[in-house]
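Lecture 7 notes: from sequence to structure.

We start with a single chain of 147 residues. Read the sequence below before looking at the structure.
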Amino acid sequence: MIRRMAPADLEQVADLERQCFTESWSYKLLEAGLHSDYDVYYVFQQEERILGYCNLRILAGEGEVQRIAVLPGYRRLGVARKMMEAMVTCARASLVSAISLEVRQGNLPARNLYESFGFRAEAVRKGYYRNPSEDALIMWKREFDKI
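Now the structure, written as tokens:
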């Protein structure tokens, strides 16, 4: 089930961050984002366990997917797709004109997911990621009638 993230979820989400990213967001950063007027956080919960979470920032009429994470043992089961659907639905309801995101150039499963939602690579940020070093693709979804 997908739902909006609540303060009670912070501990599990911070743990999920540490499992999914070499440069993870801290508990305090997640907590601050949860109370931001610009950020929307969702969790994918199965029974009592949070299997994934995502963050969409909406600012100045545009959206940015800032985070999407799924526990390693639950990837390729549709969790990320459901979270992307929630973020795109939120963006549409917020009347954004476009959504952007950054993704590791070599992360083909994520790139394929984003492309299936109509995102297209438009630019590269050289050496953006560390641990390991890798370029980031900047992808945009500019048309909301093609999902």
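The chain has four helices and seven strands. Keep this in mind for problem set 3.
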